[in-house]
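Q: Could you predict the 3D structure of Undecaprenyl-diphosphatase?
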Amino acid sequence: MLEWLLRLDLRMFFRINNQWSNGWLDAVMPWIREPYIWAPLYLFLALFVTINYKWRGFFWIVCFIVCFGIADQTGSFIKDAVGRIRPCRDPLLQHFVRSLLPYCPGSGSFTSNHAANHFALGTFCFLTLRKAFGGYAWLFYFWALIIGYAQVYVGVHYPLDIAGGALLGIMIGLLSGGFFQRRIRLEAEYTT
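A: Sure. Here are the predicted structure tokens for Undecaprenyl-diphosphatase:
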């Protein structure tokens, strides 16, 4: 079963990294995965919760950062424990991998910290901001999925790395978002 899953993972990797590629995506995907590209979104969310929810917004920002930290550190721990080689570093595969970055990270491949971090934050935002954003709250998952896909597209992760990171991130996001919703919750403060 594991061997079959790893073969499927490799086939999906080469489809995304080689077959499903085009010039426009080659230019865009390396940027999509960069954290500073998403800085305006983080700034918008920080301003949105602070302006609309006052002190609760401040605690939302703290929980958002803690959620990120837990996902990042847990992902790094798993990555070190598993020790899976990245496709761009694997001596048997690296000549067939379209590596779109000027470097190949030296850390392990499973799980993807990008996926864990963004799915954790996406889940946290979905749970805590769903009332404010309505149906648009699902875009937080789309955002995380695009970043995970970009990791495979540029050649630094396998699809299973993204799936593992996504599951880890969703669990952490559910725990941190659930904690925030039970203890603090975003409610507008009205002055009369």
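Q: Anything worth pointing out?
A: The longest helix spans residues 55-82.
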